[in-house]
Amino acid sequence: MIYIQKDGQIKKIFQSSNYREAAWLVEGNLICHRATGGAGYHVISVYKLEDGSLKTVESLTVDTKVNREDTGKLNEMEQKYSDMEMNVLFNPLSES
Question: What pLDDT sits at residue 90?
């Protein structure tokens, strides 16, 4: 889950929904999301946070069972955004 704080409010802006998904923060105020549906179906999307909502910057959907040549595109895009991954220190909210 990824949250922002705006105008004193904390708002969830992104959540992966199952074990076949991953998301990471990327330099430039971006979020990269990678998901697989199994059986060769993959999606990678990059979003930019603007005014408290996510805008799609780049997205690629690949079915490697049908188009094996698209595997290279998928790997290149994932590598590009993995190289830009931000190291983030998370401070959990406190109830006290």
Answer: 58
